[in-house]
Design brief:
Lipovitellin-phosvitin complex, beta-sheet shell regions; 13-stranded antiparallel beta sheet; 325 residues; two-stranded antiparallel sheet; 5 helices; single chain; alpha+beta; 18% helix; globular
Length: 325
């Protein structure tokens, strides 16, 4: 009997040890001097109907970033230098087709993408917590000024201010925080293993204003690699007005869902690969005064979005690599 008890205790100890080995403290681990090359490709299929006409457009935007870890403070917040290394833009819609890839293009840059190409080799500074939340991005004002200069608007103050507003919505600090926030999963800062799940919320005000309620689930954890699944419910962000001028207001009522899968280095929290698919639908609503009476109109909107992420560690900030694989 004592022999069976001893064997039982040994088996229990093995199980306890096995369970402990399958757990990891999940967070972003930042090493000053490390560098990562991130390729983020986003494809959007958009359809909206107005006055009986349906407008359909497909566009793919590819950004290749180099992330350089500059410093980590006492609160485990990293200062990261982001370099825009390569840019690709493909679109097809009612205004024709356009393809530009900086890693293939030779000769004069088309006027339609000239402002975007000013981003090449530019950099901004990002702060990211160990949880994976993007806390701030600085340096966007200089980038926007360079993009406006590339547009060649001379001294047309009205056009310049209009362009500045548009670019601020795409490349301003808040817009970039939201865009970068889509890349990083949010971590629970605790020991987790296969089967564990946790939630996080993200409020987006640029582009399509929505609130994304995400659930993260570990489906596999072994050999220093983690498979992390993402599920999300998309709800309207009613606090955001797309347009608010005297006599007229415009906002979106959107909802949808998303799902994705990441391969994560479980020791460092850095992404190896990732794919997210998101579907959003709803209506754009505009209200205003016509002949002194309140009037409103709305039209449907459908957006399917696919984000693909590939990354690799460059080893150090001294390593230079400007080719796209």
């Amino acid at each position: 009997m004592k022999k069976f008890i001893a064997v039982g205790i040994m088996i229990f100890c093995v199980l306890i040890t096995g369970c402990s080995r399958s757990k990891t403290f999940l967070s972003m681990e930042f090493q000053p001097g490390a560098a990562y090359r991130y390729t983020v490709s986003t494809t959007q299929d958009l359809a909206q109907s107005m006055m009986g006409e349906t407008l359909e457009m497909t566009q793919t935007l590819t950004w290749v970033y180099v992330f350089q870890i500059m410093d980590v403070d006492d609160n485990s917040v990293a200062t990261i230098n982001i370099i825009f290394d390569e840019i690709g833009l493909e679109s097809q819609g009612p205004f024709g087709q356009m393809v530009y890839r900086s890693w293939e293009h030779e000769g004069e840059v088309p006027q339609s993408v000239r402002a975007f190409t000013t981003l090449l080799d530019k950099h901004v500074t990002m702060k990211v917590s160990s949880e994976g939340r993007v806390m701030s991005i600085t340096g966007t004002d200089t980038i926007i000024n360079d993009m406006i200069a590339a547009l060649g608007l001379d001294s047309d103050t009205t056009m310049i201010e209009s362009a500045r507003r548009d670019l601020e919505n795409q490349f301003g600090s808040k817009a970039m925080i939201e865009n970068m926030g889509k890349i990083f999963p949010v971590y629970p800062l605790q020991s987790v293993g296969a089967g564990d799940a946790w939630g996080a919320e993200m409020r987006l005000s640029k582009g399509l204003p929505v609130i994304v309620h995400s659930t993260w689930h570990i489906s596999d954890l072994q050999n220093g690699m983690m498979t992390l699944d993402a599920y999300g419910i998309i709800a309207p962000n009613s606090d955001v007005l797309f347009m608010n001028v005297p006599g007229a207001r415009m906002h979106y009522k959107l909802h949808g869902h998303k799902r994705g899968r990441y391969t994560i280095d479980s020791k460092t929290g850095w992404i190896i690969t990732g794919e997210i698919q998101q579907y959003t639908e709803g209506v754009a609503v505009i209200t205003g005064l016509i002949n002194g009476q309140a009037q409103s109109a709305q039209w449907p909107l459908h957006v399917t979005e696919k984000i693909q992420i590939e990354t690799r560690e460059l080893g150090s900030m001294d390593e230079e690599d400007s080719t796209t694989e």
